[in-house]
Design brief:
- It is a single chain.
- The protein contains eleven helices and no strands.
- It is mostly helical.
- Helix 8 (about 185-195) runs antiparallel to helix 9.
- The protein is flat and about 75 Å long.
């Protein structure tokens, strides 16, 4: 009887595993469909803006001037670092003279970082599209498709700057930029996260990531100062413990 009972239990467990695997497969298909749909939306959007750009190049000079004026008024936030070269050069040239206090001031009391202009008008994503865009970007980053991840995170941050996913998006955007060797862009992205979202769960990780980039780019003074600030502001965090080891 015990053997029969055990066999029945095994059959029951097997059936449950089959049902679970079936559900997982169904969810994976649904997620892939969402990613594919989002990619189609982005492709259609890019095609639309390409057509608009062609129209503008063939417009009369006066119309083009008016269009450029309108675009400058409608410029939207972007987390790329193309408008930050002057500020970055100043920080880099004075790295050897910076103190912990100076770095703290740079991260917490300086004027907002200038944002690169975008020619795309703001088109706020719906709550569902916002969530799907973040999910697709996150999965792309985890899969090593960093170019795709950067494009999707930028899309989210440009169109929904106050998104509930903004701090997470900035962190993974900076990580993707760093993985592609876009170190200066990653530095500015992590700075934005630190400045704008001091209560984010990614705040301490952003400090540590920033210090790691400074170490990778041989900016030892900046690395030391960032690690020191991390320890002072978040002494009980796991990242502070790692920072202490790095300073030894």
């Amino acid at each position: 009887m015990r053997i029969i009972d055990q066999q029945q239990d095994m059959l029951t467990l097997t059936e449950q595993l089959v049902r679970i695997e079936s559900k997982i497969e169904s969810k994976e298909k649904q997620l892939q469909k969402i990613i594919n749909d989002q990619s189609k939306i982005i492709q259609n959007t890019d095609a639309f803006f390409a057509q608009e750009s062609q129209k503008k190049t063939s417009s009369p000079p006066q119309a083009e001037a008016n269009s450029n004026e309108k675009m400058s008024m409608e410029a939207v936030p972007s987390v790329t670092a193309t408008a930050l070269d002057n500020r970055s050069a100043i920080v880099s040239s004075s790295a050897t003279e910076m103190s912990t206090t100076a770095v703290t001031a740079t991260l917490t009391t300086s004027a907002p970082i200038p944002l690169a202009q975008s020619t795309h008008p703001i088109q706020q994503l719906s709550a569902e599209s916002e969530k799907n865009t973040y999910s697709a970007a996150y999965l792309a980053a985890k899969a090593g498709r960093y170019d795709e991840a950067i494009r999707l995170f930028n899309l989210l941050l440009q169109n929904n700057p106050q998104s509930e996913y903004s701090d997470q998006a900035l962190f993974w955007l900076g990580s993707s930029q760093n993985n592609l060797g876009q170190h200066q862009a990653a530095i500015e992205t992590f700075k934005r996260l630190i400045e704008i979202y001091p209560n984010s769960q990614k705040h301490t990780e952003a400090y540590l990531s920033l210090a790691n980039i400074y170490a990778k780019t041989d900016q030892k003074a900046l690395e030391k100062n960032i690690l020191t600030i991390l320890i002072e502001q978040h002494p009980d965090s796991e990242q502070a413990a790692q920072a202490k080891l790095l300073l030894q």
